[in-house]
Structures are given as structure tokens and as C-alpha cells.
Specification:
It is built from 13 helices and eleven strands. The chain is an alpha/beta fold. The protein has a single domain, classed as Inosine-uridine Nucleoside N-ribohydrolase, Chain A (Alpha-Beta Complex), CATH 3.90.245. It has a nine-stranded mixed sheet, sandwiched between helices. It has a two-stranded antiparallel sheet with strand order 7-8.
Length: 334
């Protein structure tokens, strides 16, 4: 009896608490073969996020390597690192809530992230799916270097942007605000590559409550306790800034959708024209999305605007924690 071949995945990321949840899920899911993890500055500086990626590879006993990528947005790549902004302490001082985790430097490749991405796409044309959880700088540099190679990527699942809301400005989300130029370049291949945008409109429909985090600590074993511990500073920022108990695990959304797209209905996904504003000021990083095809421009994006938050969390629990998910369904979300 033949088995379905595993999907070939590259995770491009800036861990980040929500990245950690996403990476753990992708590494746990039996249908994915995570070939490599590439890092990019965003939530924290490049050294921090690369170390965080190594920590996640170690605690998951994953066989893939980590590849160090861009240390700044495209327009700042030649600037001193100390001039670069990040997400501050939203994810704790180190990006993973300050908890102590082991890591193995032998899992860090000498091959730069962009070289790895291009090499892997050349080796597997039409098969590679990139799950992009941070700014799109590495993807954009790869496109600038070898556009025809990058058009052979099968899919890009990107957490970023927003149609009706922002979090860095009233209209701009952090990842696309951090490197608007990279996002605009990435969607430039959207006629040839299926690019899915998971912006704040959909991620806020998948809120983790304080009860959800408590369940991880009580029933998730060592991994659950680690996820709980690393999320506490992050959840604390939601209480401090918004008086909300819980948090949005933004970067988990593209991973869960890529695994099970039925968390959204067909009418929640728009094939449309998308541009990213690169002008300075409040609109920098804004995603301009033509949901109704008013201007008849070429369509370059799939924009997901809604999801079933309960089903989303149940899928996460099933993949990462197995049979324990039945307790979650019975006592936490029933």
C-alpha cells in the first residue's frame, strides 16, 4: 500500500513566540518534510532569532539545519546593525520569553539562507513550499538574484499584512511594515506562484485564551510546559497593553491552514490583486487589496480573511499533543 509523499517545506522565520508554536507544529506534522529553517531579522536581531531557531530544532529533535539570513530589511542591509529596529520585548528579551532551552551549533549551516533557498528550489522545482513567518527579506533577495528560479516555488504561505487593520500603524502589520519593499517584491511573482497572505484580519479570529495556555501547561507534557512558559511574557503584553487575557499566535495560522485549509470556508479566501505601500509614514507597509476586482489588474495573491478559531486550535492540539486533544475538546472548548 503506497503512502502519500511528504510535502517539502522551507520555514523562513524570525522566532518569536508565535513562530515557535508554528515551527513546533510544522516539525510535528507527519505530512511535512521540513528541509530547512532560514532565519531573518524581525521580532529580534538576527543572532537572537537564529539561536531561537536552533533551540526549537533541538527540543523537537529535528533533522533539518538552520540557515542564517538577512540581518535587516532590504533598504538597511548595508547599514550598521545597531540602527535596526525590532519588536522590542513583546516576545521577551530574547524572543522566546527568556526561558532556558538547549541548542546545538552544529545544526547551524555555513550556507547563507538565500543560497540555501535557491539551491533547494533548483533541486526540487515545483515542489517547495515556503512558510514565511517573518519579514520577507530573504525571499525578496532570492527573487532579485534569480527570479526564474523563484517562480518554480510551489507555494508561499506568508503571515503578514492586513486588509482592515494594522498593529504598527493603523493600517500596517509588523512583518510587512518591517520590510515593505521585500513584501512588494515577493508579491511580484504572485502570478506565477500561489502566495497566500494571512493578515491580522484572520489571525485575530484564532485567539488563544488563558484557558488554552493553562491546558498546555497541565496536559501538554514537557513540550506543552515549554510553550506555556515561553508564552507568558507575550501574553502579559496583551494584558498590559490591551487588558486582554490570552494572546494571538499569529504565525501558527499559515501552518494550520497549509495542513487543513478547511479551517476557512471557500468564501473566506479571495484571489485578488495585492500591493504593498513602500512610502514613508503611517501607510508604510500597508497592504492594498482589491477584494472585488474593481481595477482588473493581474491577480497575484490569495488573501484569507476568516477562520474557525475553535477548529484551528483543535487541529493544533491534535497534531502537537495527539490523544490529549480529546481532553481539550471535552473540557476547554466544549
Amino acid at each position: 500500500m503506497s503512502t502519500q509523499p511528504k510535502r517539502k517545506i522551507i520555514i523562513d522565520t524570525d522566532p518569536g513566540v508565535d513562530d515557535a508554536f508554528a515551527i513546533v507544529t510544522a516539525l510535528r506534522y507527519q505530512g511535512f518534510e521540513v528541509l530547512g529553517i532560514t532565519t531573518v531579522a524581525g521580532n529580534k536581531g538576527l543572532d537572537y532569532v537564529t539561536k531561537n531557531a536552533l533551540k526549537l530544532v533541538e527540543i523537537m529533535n529535528a533533522g533539518c539545519m538552520v540557515y542564517k539570513g538577512a540581518n535587516a530589511a532590504l533598504k538597511y542591509l548595508d547599514k550598521p546593525v545597531d540602527e535596526i529596529k525590532d519588536a522590542g520585548d513583546t516576545h521577551g528579551f530574547d524572543g522566546l520569553g527568556g526561558i532556558k532551552l538547549p541548542y546545538d551549533l552544529s545544526k547551524l549551516s555555513d550556507l547563507p539562507a538565500v543560497d540555501y533557498i535557491l539551491q533547494t528550489v533548483r533541486n526540487y522545482p515545483g515542489e517547495i513550499e515556503i512558510i514565511a513567518l517573518g519579514p520577507l527579506t530573504n525571499i525578496a533577495v532570492a527573487i532579485q538574484r534569480e527570479p526564474e528560479t523563484m517562480k518554480k516555488v510551489k507555494k508561499i504561505w506568508s503571515m503578514g499584512g492586513g486588509v482592515y487593520r494594522g498593529n504598527m500603524t493603523p493600517v500596517s502589520e509588523f512583518n510587512y511594515w518591517f520590510d515593505a519593499e521585500a513584501a512588494e517584491i515577493t508579491y511580484g511573482i504572485g502570478e506565477d506562484v500561489d502566495i497566500y497572505m494571512f493578515g491580522l484580519d484572520v489571525t485575530y479570529k484564532t485567539f488563544f485564551t488563558a484557558n488554552d495556555f493553562f491546558f498546555l501547561k497541565q496536559e501538554g507534557g514537557e513540550l506543552g510546559r515549554r510553550l506555556y512558559d515561553m508564552s507568558q511574557d507575550y501574553a502579559g503584553s496583551y494584558w498590559k497593553n490591551r487588558r486582554i487575557t490570552g494572546a494571538v499566535i499569529h504565525d501558527l495560522v499559515p501552518v494550520i491552514y497549509a495542513i487543513d485549509p478547511t479551517i476557512s470556508h471557500e468564501e473566506d479566501v479571495y484571489r485578488c490583486t495585492l500591493n504593498v505601500c513602500c512610502e514613508p509614514g503611517l501607510v508604510h507597509g500597508q497592504t492594498i487589496v482589491d477584494l472585488v476586482d474593481r481595477h482588473k489588474y493581474p491577480k497575484n495573491a490569495y488573501v484569507v480573511l476568516n477562520a474557525d478559531g475553535r477548529k484551528f486550535k483543535e487541529v493544533f492540539m491534535e497534531i502537537v499533543f495527539g490523544e490529549v486533544a480529546e481532553l481539550y475538546k471535552k473540557y476547554v472548548v466544549s
